[in-house]
Amino acid sequence: MGKFSGRRALVTGAGSGIGRATALKLAEMGAEVFALSKTLANLESLKQECPSINIIPVNLENWTESREAVKKITPIHLLVNNAAYAEIAPFLEASPECFDKTFNVNVKAVMNISQVVAGDLVARQLRGSIVNVSSQAGHRALQDHTVYGSSKSALEMLTRSMGLELGPKGIRTNAVAPTVVKTPMALVGWSDPVKAAGMISKIPQGRFAEVEEVVNAIVFLLSDESDMVNGHSLPVDGGYLAA
């Protein structure tokens, strides 16, 4: 399980859900892991579960503070931009506050953290791999997901642009685009059994994704086994986007 021995990894939104599971998996596989979240209590429980993980309590909405926090831990060879914000509302009820917060976390913070990590790697002439956690909502419109889906669509283009510009410098960038994953965040939009059943009926495999299934895809894209994969988005959606 030492696939990432000697490498330093940063996972944002690591306090819960996909981010937490990814941080634990990377630590298990030998990486020196840094877990970033705005919720200190979540980070402390993660540290209790895996004492080798280094925790960074910072709010990604603060451009300067988060940038300075990441500069202090470079170099980072493996970056997982997992942190996200979701607020579900019909298009006609979407607020400017929701739009700003969603794009600040889901897009702007990804650019910010990735600039710090990638810029440092380039300066040191080191190779690296970045994975952005996107969503099927970035590929297909979903009811009441206008702002969230738009932010993930922007993240998909950011991923491709990063792959194009950073690839020649030895840094690969890819994304994973899951369907609904069984996390606390998913309950925001999918706690209604009728609504959930409607989505599940459109997934050929007939279920939502497990956290571990997304983590496995992230690990693959971080690893040397995917060395020729760059600027792409890997759906983890049970076939939803194939229909």
Automatic annotation (TrEMBL):
Keywords: NADP, Oxidoreductase. PROSITE patterns: ADH_SHORT. Transmembrane segments: none annotated. It comes from the Eukaryota. InterPro entries: L-xylulose/Carbonyl_redctase, NAD(P)-bd_dom_sf, Sc_DH/Rdtase_CS, SDR_fam. GO terms for molecular function: carbonyl reductase (NADPH) activity; L-xylulose reductase (NADPH) activity. It holds the Pfam family adh_short_C2. GO terms for biological process: glucose metabolic process; xylulose metabolic process. Homotetramer. Belongs to the short-chain dehydrogenases/reductases (SDR) family. This is L-xylulose reductase.
